[in-house]
Amino acid sequence: MADELFDTGQAVIKSEAPLTAVLNAARQGNGHIDVDGYADIQPDTNPGGNQQLSEDRANAVKDWLTNHRIADSRITAVGHGATQIWGEGWAPSALQQNRRVEVTVDS
């Protein structure tokens, strides 16, 4: 989930629609849920700021899930900053691939 979930440089969820499938999967069982936040890296970006942004995004998703009655104890939220780059280069499409949150729901 990338730009459809967060505006650039923001950690406020702008659309709940992408999270619906995650919520449905989480409600199907009692397994653990990992929420991993990532950020892009640009020439003028502060790496510490990207780390914080990735943590804030992961926690925003965790908070959203707990607000929808998923137990906090089931969820781990971790920010990885720009440590795991998917898209390479400065093209908007490459940067967008790196601004993401990945959610894994164990059954």
Give an overview in words.
Helix 2 (47-67) links the parallel strand 1 and strand 2 (75-79). With 107 residues, this protein is an alpha+beta fold. It has helices at residues 20-27, 47-67, 92-98; strands at 33-37, 75-79, 101-105. It has one domain (17-105): OmpA-like domain (60s Ribosomal Protein L30, Chain: A, 2-Layer Sandwich), CATH 3.30.1330. The protein has three helices and three strands. The model has no long low-confidence stretch (mean pLDDT 85).
CATH architecture name:
2-Layer Sandwich
Structural class: alpha+beta
Order of helices and strands: HEHEHE
Radius of gyration: 14 Å
Ends apart, CA distance between termini: 20 Å
CATH superfamily: OmpA-like domain
Can you summarize the main beta sheet? 3 strands, mixed
Q: Strand share of the residues? A: 5-15%
List segments where confidence is low: pLDDT < 50 over at least 5 consecutive residues: none
* Main β-sheet, spatial strand arrangement: 2-1-3
Text of the CATH class: Alpha Beta
Assign the CATH topology: 60s Ribosomal Protein L30, Chain: A
Domain unit count: 1
Q: What is the general shape?
A: elongated
State the helical fraction.
Answer: 25-40%
Average pLDDT figure:
85
Count the beta strands: 3
Query: What's the helix count?
Result: 3
Label this structure with key terms.
about 110 residues, alpha+beta, 60s Ribosomal Protein L30, Chain: A, 3-stranded mixed β-sheet, 3 helices, 3 strands, elongated
